[in-house]
Amino acid sequence: DGLGWVAYFLGKDAEAEKIFSSNIKRNPNASYSYKGLAFIQLRQKMWDKAALNLEHSFKLVPKQPISDYLFAANVFISAKKYSYATIVLGQALSIYPKSADINFYLAKSLYLASDKDKAYAFLATATYYDPIRISPLFNTLKGIDLNKTKDSLLNMGWGLYVAGYYKDALFRFNQCLGVDKNNSNALRGKGFSLLSLKQYKEANKALEISMSLPGHNKLKPVTTTFVAKNKKSIAIITDTETMLAWSEYYLGDYLNSQASFEQITTNHPDWVNAQLGLAYTLKALGKDFKPTVTQVNKLAPGYTSYIPEHSSHVLEVSYKLYNR
Question: Are the beta carbons of 211 and 221 closer than 8 angstroms?
């Protein structure tokens, strides 16, 4: 196999083909020789033969590098041989079901082949597993029906938000709201993003609308992870009410902010972000805030140094909490 691959990479197709074919005659299970023949045939646009040899190679040894699956699939997609791309990516998916790339290019192949409903399902999976990476690729799917990709838009919005790309996150949330203006989760994400962009009045409005909608009660809080000074990982739980209270604080509505934070911390005394908000509000009102700061430092040592941009402290995140 090795000599055949050297010849292939040097562009000596005839020599490589001879070596691979000879290997297969000696060993009918020579998976990588079948793949070598297939890659030569892809280069020569012999689509049918390439597809057969790839399928045989991947059946013999399914767990091959993702890059090999993707290379072959993208050559087929570029040649508009979508059925062959779908077969290759379907084989890959059985081995790498959580690969965002495999799911995305399978979605792309199906989409370009006009099997769009199936494509949207794989697109949602791709954005679930790697929303930041898939976001720019999503834009390459021309004429996409945003009404059928709301889950994807939400996945990308939250992924971008947590990574600190607030403007990009806001764009995705607004795309979702463009086709579903009463989507409570998208409004919540819009509010979170606007707050981090220091557009406090607009954030307050979006958060209030989100909380007024029936779907809001079904949303789980956003959970991120803060690594404290003692090296322990601390769950930072933030819901819409907490962010609304922060928006009230930034707008100078300290009495309402205090009432909101006190209610939240009474119900959830271990919610560090709300405790921190209460401390800042009490300080702004000239009240004793030190016991609250002590509580924050007890729950998450060092967290008091991270005053809101709200996600600048995030090192890890569970995306699956965001769209349910």
Answer: no
Angstrom distance (rounded) from CA 59 to CA 262:
61
> Which residues, 6+ apart, have CB-to-CB distance to 244 below 8 Å?
191, 204, 207, 208, 211, 260
In tens, the pLDDT along 106-119 reads: 999 999 999 999 99
Provide the whole-model pTM.
0.87
Q: How far apart are CA 148 and CA 176, in angstroms?
A: 10
- For 58, the token pair is 């991947």
**282: left (phi > 0), else alpha (psi -120 to 50), else beta?**
alpha
Structure-token pair, residue 62? 């399914």
The model's pLDDT over 147-163, given as tens digits with 9 standing for 90+, comes to 999 999 999 999 999 88
State the Cα–Cα distance between residues 152 and 126, nearest whole angstrom.
Answer: 8
Query: In angstroms, rounded to a whole number, what is the distance separating the alpha carbons of residues 140 and 180?
Result: 22
Task: Give the CA-trace dihedral at 94, 95, 101, 103, to 10 degrees.
Answer: 10
Residue 24, H or E segment: helix 13-26
